[in-house]
Automatic annotation (TrEMBL):
It comes from the Bacteria. InterPro entries: VWF_A, vWFA_dom_sf. Residues 13-189 form the VWFA domain. It holds the Pfam family VWA. It comes from Desulforapulum autotrophicum (strain ATCC 43914 / DSM 3382 / VKM B-1955 / HRM2). This is VWFA domain-containing protein.
Length: 222
């Protein structure tokens, strides 16, 4: 008797590169990012998986280095999320290296996956040996095909580097001046990814309309 394998939805990988340096502890920035990430997981986990399955990874950079805070995981199987802690310097280059290794890993991100989304969030300048890792990630064939977005938090962020990171002229670097803007940005990212997952053509990028997220819908829990 001929056996048939069950058809599984193709994954949409979403990789968040999150700044957890000490400056993120000021003005509620790390609290806002933690709330935004919890909201993001809640939204992704509730999405239908008939058409596409959203996978999420969170890579942090702060203190002594970068690490995979949340390995790439199907969103609906994430049972808990430990809050990010802000401390130390801004070793962003380590995050670029981890992101490149992840996006090029064909066991974790198979060729049948839809176009990945990479989101870089930072409030400062990288202070490790980051340039080569940044260039290597941007030059990666898979990273070039990914949708790359960025948010600059406050006036001390390296906006020139963030502008070089993004690859969609229709989606410029988002500038956040406070906690509400951080949450608004992640809401916009969530809307973009979930719109793709419901689309008949999930590889097509969805333009983010930041202005469509009104302030009065943002509930801050801190």
């Amino acid at each position: 008797m001929k056996k048939f394998a069950a058809r599984t939805a193709r994954p949409i990988p979403v990789i968040i590169l999150a700044d957890t340096s000490g400056s993120m502890s000021v003005d509620g920035k790390i609290d806002a990012m933690n709330q935004a990430l919890r909201d993001l997981i809640d939204t992704f986990s509730g999405e239908s998986r008939l058409n596409a399955e959203i996978h999420l990874s969170v890579i942090t950079f702060g203190g002594d280095g970068a690490k995979e805070h949340l390995p790439l995981t199907c969103a609906h199987t994430i049972s808990g999320f430990s809050d990010l802690q802000a401390h130390g310097m801004t070793p962003m280059g380590g995050a670029f290296r981890i992101a490149k290794e992840l996006i090029e890993d064909k066991e974790k991100i198979p060729s049948r996956a839809y176009r990945p989304v990479i989101v870089l969030v930072s409030d400062g300048y990288p202070n490790d040996d980051w340039e080569a890792a940044f260039s290597s990630l941007r030059g990666s064939e898979r990273a070039q095909k990914a949708t790359r977005m960025a948010m600059a938090i406050g006036s001390d962020a390296d906006e020139n580097m963030l502008k070089d990171f993004i690859n969609d002229p229709e989606t410029p670097v988002f500038r956040a001046n406070g906690a509400r803007d951080i949450i608004r940005f992640f809401r916009a990212v969530s809307m973009s990814v979930t719109s793709r997952s419901r689309s008949s053509a999930p590889n097509q990028p969805i333009q983010i309309e930041y202005e469509e997220i009104p302030d009065d819908e943002l509930d801050l829990d801190f």
